[in-house]
Design brief:
Chain C: One of its GO terms (molecular function) is oxidoreductase activity. The complex is a heterotrimer of chains A (458), B (103) and C (390). By secondary structure, chain B is mainly beta. Chain B has one helix at residues 35-40; strands at 8-9, 17-22, 25-30, 47-48, 55-56, 69-72, 77-79, 90-92. In chain B, strand 6 and strand 7 form a beta hairpin. The chains are: A alpha/beta (458), B mainly beta (103), C alpha+beta (390). The complex binds flavin-adenine dinucleotide (2 copies) and FE2/S2 (inorganic) cluster.
Chain lengths: 458, 103, 390
């Protein structure tokens, strides 16, 4: 069995714990990650030469970050680590890789653990493609990874825990905040509190950020609808509608926006995994059992790429996927470890569910998005064109609409517009979200340069 | 840092200075900057969108939106948010593609 | 449904063939038509193909039908209200060795007798007009009136126009059986409908053999998937469709900038899966061709790949026309990788045949009868005589 090759895609919390579990069982997995260093999104490491402390970078999470980084570093010579390498396509049990210089490689696997993480979920507003508008995650990366703020006076608009976290981090770093504009009514967030007791520590952190920001006089508005970003070639103002229905303008030179995150599922799709609509996540997700087994033999799912449940759960599901893989290969594994991980996973899932309910995806915003707003920032197709395609051309689901008007057809493969396209389609057609389907994945999962170097045969 | 710039450095400013070129003009970054940071600490856009030719300056910073791909003078593609600046890198923020040029 | 289950014609399969046939039947002859499509109109081969509207290089006996189709392509806005991005940009077939140049020259000489006038392009002209071509080209043949269109738009546009003209377009409705009784055909669908018509058109693409076989006319058809890819948007620099003499590589640029390419090996197809996956390894091969063909494309990005299901007959000619065995049954399938250009012409011919019994376009070489020897040994992969070759 030791000859069997296990590949892990993603070296974040999920991928790291998966690798560690496999190494402990005597395997030498391949770990592929597009990023130059391990850590994934939340524990993303700053580049060499930066000197900020972990405490400064990760705040309350510093200890966890240190443990995860150490765990990966200890594995260095026990795994075949391929940083800076993207998996862009799959065929049967082969993965196609490309590194930064366009060098190609093909690796085979007996078992594959997908730990590909998540990306921000976006609701477009007029002007959202303008320089100065970034995702909340992007704003956080600018600070964590580059010691930069995205602007001198930043407006944050959206919903979800990241909204307050990023605001806190920016303010702590000395940034000026034009305001925090939350699309969720405050009452809804408060109503969610009791259920979030599943994770008292996280809930306490959230409350702490909120109170700290309020105490520092950061303007905070709830129940708002972003209308547009204004400016000449770059952001100068954010216009929104407040809960009383008034239009209000806030001067700012950057906007960070996002509504929770969504799982990165393209590779699972290319591998042929079955998907099911997850009503709470509002997203189609690959089917999985509790251990992370997908519908395809030998393919396992872990972390936020399987279902968004945050970093702690990502670590647990990473371990679970590896244990499932060992079990399926007939290798011994520690049942106590599995039970512990299962428990952590269940706790994390309950907390994630409560979080989703407290910070619901603002479906109502779509009704008021102006036709002139760009929906697909790659192909530059407007919301109006998309709506007209659905109404007049008989496009009954998102792939059909994509075929007719190119929404979701560009470089990002619908990562940025897909969630919105589905919701606008459901609203325009007057059907359930699940009924408009999901954009099919197509290789390459991210753009591939034509000038490729194929050294390793093929 | 120019008034023009989108990004504002708030820490880690004693890193080594890295000279590079953008559209033929010399500029400087700090070692450990991504190409996007290097550009946006001077300016407020990195490319034009293809159809409407509107300025763009990246969006996600994590390799998801693909809205920060630029060029090097020797024709290579660079995803600015996920590529590190290198000394004497020669970057272009406009497509050098000229289909009609002989090989 | 009320008594609307009786039609003049029922069409099985809403690709470009079926959709355009429905359109012409409803508009030209005011026939009552049901167009029955398992998925969505034009979402299979007709919706995912390369988009080449090319006559140059076709077998000569296909040219009359191709001319008929080309005439319709040029009149789409008047006929169906949209142009489907059809652009008569010309088609350039390029030779990279003396043999294929000789073949282009021979084709050129004969084509004019079939009403297709092509221009030979010498190597110096080629260099001057297409300076971006990679090394090795020795000459080319240009077909000025050919061009390309957007396959994602064409068949659905015909389907909508047919619907506006009164045709019943049933989507997500699979035909599970068709039989012939004394008074015509009885067509059964998976959702429990029964449709009747004296005339049945079998235009179910790569899946047509199932219906042909049920009427005792099975053909040795193979399903394969050509593979396509597309780049990011680039400044518009090449109007004509370009291809190698042997079609091992071809490409076109759409007006908004992206370059679509294809050619080379096909992917294997399972008829049970209507969405064959492109092979990454094929893409790498195609990219090498692309950069050899157009060196300035080095550094450009590929953003998507795809494939589709196409039925290939051994002699690469379609099965088109009346059944040799069953009165009232029309076949239109097996277009062997070249049916997009023919599509609207095929629909027009099918409409004429169904309504008048005859057509002015010569289609005898495509008769399904040429495979009659194939019955009843449905499974034997015989290589039938290419009864169509001139
Ligand atoms: C921008 C952002 C910021 C976040 N910040 C926080 C936060 O502050 N606090 C919090 O609790 N949660 C945060 N989250 C949620 C976060 O996703 C999880 O907490 C945690 O990082 C999930 O771990 P993971 O291992 O599942 O995925 P990740 O940590 O996202 O790791 C996935 C890895 O897979 C790699 N990858 C993906 N696709 C490919 C491919 N095709 N080829 C090669 N490599 C690939 C990526 O490069 C990445 O390193 C954030 C999420 C995002 C998107
Ligand atoms: C990738 C690719 C590239 C190509 N490039 C070109 C090109 O550049 N130029 C060119 O001229 N040709 C090209 N072709 C060929 C061309 O696309 C086809 O010949 C043409 O589209 C065939 O049209 P069709 O209507 O016969 O088939 P299809 O478009 O496949 O339509 C058949 C329809 O029948 C339906 N159907 C099947 N079974 C049933 C059932 N039981 N009940 C109801 N409906 C059913 C299917 O769902 C399908 O929609 C290409 C083909 C492919 C796949
Ligand atoms: S900013 Fe999104 S990919 Fe670079």
């Amino acid at each position: 069995m030791s000859s069997s090759r296990v590949v892990i895609i993603g070296a974040g919390p999920a991928g790291t714990r998966a690798a560690e579990t496999l190494v402990a069982a005597g395997l030498k997995p391949v770990v592929v990650d597009e990023a130059p260093r391990s850590g994934g999104q939340i524990y993303r490491r700053q580049p060499p030469g930066f000197g900020r402390s972990l405490k400064k970078l990760y705040g309350f999470e510093a200890g966890k970050a240190a443990r995860l980084h150490d765990a990966f570093d200890r594995l260095q010579d026990k795994v075949d680590y391929r940083p800076g390498t993207m998996v862009w396509g799959t065929e049967g049990h082969n993965l196609h890789l490309a590194d930064r210089d366009g060098r190609q490689d093909v690796i085979g696997f007996d078992a594959l653990i997908l730990a590909t993480g998540a990306v921000d979920r976006i609701v477009p507003f007029e002007g959202w493609t303008m320089p100065g508008v970034y995702t909340l995650g992007g704003a956080q990366i600018a600070l964590k990874y580059q010691a930069c703020l995205i602007g001198r006076n930043v407006a944050l608009v959206g919903s979800g825990p990241l909204l307050y976290l990023v605001a806190y981090q920016y303010r702590r770093a000395g940034g000026n905040l034009a305001g925090i504009f939350d699309t969720t009514p405050l009452s809804r967030e408060l109503a969610g509190l009791p259920r979030m007791a599943a994770n008292p520590a996280n809930t306490a952190k959230g409350l702490y950020y909120f109170a700290w920001l309020a105490a520092h006089g950061v303007p905070m508005l709830h129940d708002v609808s972003p209308l547009r970003a204004e400016g000449e070639g770059r952001v100068a103002r954010l216009v929104l509608r407040d809960r009383a229905g008034r239009e209000r303008t806030f001067a700012c030179d950057a906007i960070a926006t996002g509504y929770h995150v969504q799982s990165e599922t393209q590779l699972a799709d290319l591998l042929g995994c079955d998907f099911a609509f997850d009503a709470r996540a509002g997203q189609w997700l690959p089917r999985q059992d509790e251990m992370g087994r997908s519908s395809v033999d030998g393919v396992y799912l872990a972390g936020d790429g399987a279902s968004v449940r945050g970093a702690d759960t990502a670590e647990a599901t990473g371990a679970l996927a590896a244990l499932a893989c060992l079990q399926d290969q007939g290798m011994p594994f520690d049942a106590a470890v599995r039970n512990q991980a299962l428990q952590a996973m269940r706790r994390g899932s309950a907390f994630a569910a409560a979080l989703r309910d407290a910070f619901p995806f603002p479906e109502h915003l779509y009704e008021n998005i102006a036709d002139t707003t760009l929906l697909c920032r790659c192909e530059e197709v407007s919301v109006g064109t998309f709506r007209a395609t659905l109404r007049d051309k008989g496009a009954g689901e998102v792939n059909r609409a994509k075929a007719f008007c190119r929404v979701g057809m560009g470089r990002c493969q619908g990562r940025m517009c897909g969630a919105s396209a589905a919701r606008i389609a459901a609203q325009t057609l007057g059907v359930e979200l699940a009924a408009v389907g999901r954009l099919r994945g197509q290789a390459p999962v991210k753009p591939l340069p034509t000038a490729l170097q194929t050294e390793a045969g093929e | 840092m120019d008034e023009q710039s989108l990004f504002l450095r708030v820490a880690e400013q004693d890193r080594e200075i890295v000279p590079f070129f953008v559209n033929g003009r010399p500029a400087t970054a700090l070692s450990g900057d991504t190409v996007l940071t290097a550009l946006l600490t001077h300016d407020h856009e990195v490319r034009l969108s293809e159809i409407l030719e509107q300025p763009r300056a990246g969006f996600c910073l994590m390799g998801a939106c693909q809205d920060c791909w630029i060029w090097t003078e020797d024709g290579k593609r660079v995803r600015a948010c996920s590529t590190m600046i290198e000394p004497d890198m020669r970057l272009r923020t406009r497509s050098p593609f000229n289909g009609a040029r002989p090989e | 449904m009320t008594d609307a289950t009786k039609y003049d014609v029922v069409i099985v399969g809403g690709g470009l063939m079926g959709a355009s046939a429905a359109f012409f039947l409803a508009t030209r002859y005011k026939f009552s038509v049901a167009l029955v499509e398992r998925g969505r109109i034009g979402a299979q081969a007709s919706g995912v193909n390369f988009g080449n509207v090319r006559r140059q290089g076709r077998p000569f006996i296909q040219l009359p039908l191709a001319h008929h189709a080309r005439d319709i392509w040029g009149r789409l806005p008047a006929l169906i209200g949209e142009d489907c991005e059809f652009l008569p940009t010309g088609h350039l077939k390029i030779a990279f060795d003396e043999d294929s140049l000789a073949a282009l020259e021979a084709y050129n000489a004969e084509a004019r007798h079939w009403g297709l006038s092509l221009t030979l392009v010498g190597v110096n002209r080629l260099r001057a007009d297409y300076p971006f071509l990679g090394p090795g080209a020795v000459g080319a043949s240009f077909s000025p009136e050919d061009g390309h269109a957007n396959p994602r738009l064409a068949a659905p546009a015909f389907g909508r126009a047919a619907r506006r003209a009164g045709a019943h377009v049933l989507e997500q409705c699979e035909v599970i059986g068709a039989t012939r009784q004394s008074d015509g055909f009885i067509i059964e669908t998976a959702d429990g409908r029964i449709l009747r018509a004296p005339i049945l058109i079998n235009s179910a693409g790569a899946w047509s053999n199932r219906f042909a076989a049920s009427f005792g006319e099975s053909v040795p058809m193979e399903a394969r998937g050509p593979q396509m890819g597309v780049t990011e948007s680039l400044p518009y620099f090449v109007q004509p469709v370009l291809g190698t003499g042997d079609s091992s590589f071809y490409m076109r640029q759409v007006k908004r900038g992206s370059v679509v390419f294809g050619g080379g090996v096909h992917v294997a197809v399972d008829l049970a899966d209507p969405r064959p996956r492109p092979r990454p390894a094929h893409l790498l091969t195609q990219l090498r061709s692309l950069v050899r063909f157009l060196p300035s494309m080095a550094g450009v990005q590929v953003v998507r790949t795809w494939s589709g299901v196409e039925g290939y007959l051994p002699d690469k000619l379609p099965a088109l026309g009346w059944s040799a065995k069953t009165p009232g049954l029309l076949h239109a399938f097996g277009f062997s990788g070249h049916g997009f250009q023919l599509g609207p012409g095929v629909g027009s011919v099918l409409a004429d045949l169904a309504a008048t019994g005859d057509t002015s376009v010569p289609i005898e070489p495509f008769s399904i009868e040429r495979f009659a020897d194939n019955e009843p040994a449905k499974t034997s992969p015989v290589a039938p005589s290419s009864g169509s070759a001139r």
